[in-house]
Design a protein that fits this description.
Blueprint lengths: L7 E7 L5 H12 L4 E3 L8 E8 L6 H5 L3 E9 L1 E3 L8 E4 L7 H10 L2 E5 L8 E2 L2 E2 H6 L9 E14 L2 E8 L5 H12 L3 E11 L2 E2 L4 E2 H6 L2 H5 L5 H7 L3
Parallel strand pairs: 1-14, 3-12
Antiparallel strand pairs: 1-3, 2-3, 4-11, 4-12, 5-6, 7-10, 8-9, 10-11, 12-13
Length: about 240
């Protein structure tokens, strides 16, 4: 299919330090098409799976965004930041006690299944038409509507205090940095998200994704060959 007439989904492994919009802009340039979007923002800090929709693929954008996600992350205990991740300013430091494995497990168990999560001030959610992160830059803190979210499962992968490596499978609209922040509060010492990688979204895995460097530096034809057509996407989703 000629460039500019592609329809489908491109799985990309986002690098740190770039926005999801940056990835969309690169894809537009390489594939010579304006009709490109992404399914679920990854913060600049985060890496991993970004689903990019091309051409008529944009019509199933909402469908793909609604699917469950899997993340691998590291939280750092003892430091609370204004953004709830490592890119923010440290607002408070607390000593980290010698936490027993049972105490850590209990804190994680508190945030399993259905619960409400209050989005962070540094987020793209809009309040009266203004993104919260713009209000946060002005030093403003406004009331946020709690969101109903679900954690299907988690794994505490490694504990090397003050850091904890974890994996979490969660619903759409879930903030992993808020998850880390809230678990830190539950433990009494506070925490922020140090690193994050999206490993899965629905039936799609980061192992199937093209690295950003290959997107930037590969030939348009090579990138186009990685675009999954819509019938293939439908079969992969089990639809």
């Amino acid at each position: 299919m000629p460039l500019g007439n592609l329809d489908g989904v491109l799985l990309i492994d986002k690098a740190p330090g770039m926005t999801s919009h940056d990835v969309v802009a690169i894809t537009r340039r390489v594939l010579q098409t304006k009709k490109v979007g992404h399914c679920g923002t990854l913060d600049p800090l985060a890496t991993g799976l970004l689903i990019v929709v091309v051409g008529k693929g944009t019509k199933i954008q909402d469908l793909l965004m609604a699917e469950d996600k899997e993340y691998a992350g590291t939280m750092k205990l003892g430091e609370i930041t204004d953004s709830q991740d490592a890119e923010g300013q440290i607002e408070e430091t607390r000593p980290v006690p010698d936490l027993a494995p049972e105490a850590i497990r209990t804190a994680f168990e508190h945030f399993k299944g259905d619960f409400y999560q209050t989005p962070p001030m540094v987020s793209a959610i809009k309040k009266e038409g203004v993104p919260l992160y713009k209000l946060a830059r002005q030093g403003k803190v406004v009331e946020r509507e709690p969101r109903f979210v679900h954690v299907f499962g988690y794994e505490i992968q490694n504990v090397r205090l003050p850091e904890i490596d974890f994996r979490v499978v969660c619903s759409k609209g879930f903030y992993v940095r808020t998850y880390a922040h809230d678990i830190g509060l539950e433990l009494g010492c506070g925490a922020h998200l140090k690193s994050l990688r999206r490993t899965k979204s629905g039936r799609f895995s980061v192992e199937q994704a093209i690295p950003v460097d290959a997107l930037k530096n590969g030939s348009p034809e090579a990138v186009a060959a990685r675009v999954l057509d819509l019938p293939t996407v439908s079969r992969m989703r089990g639809a």
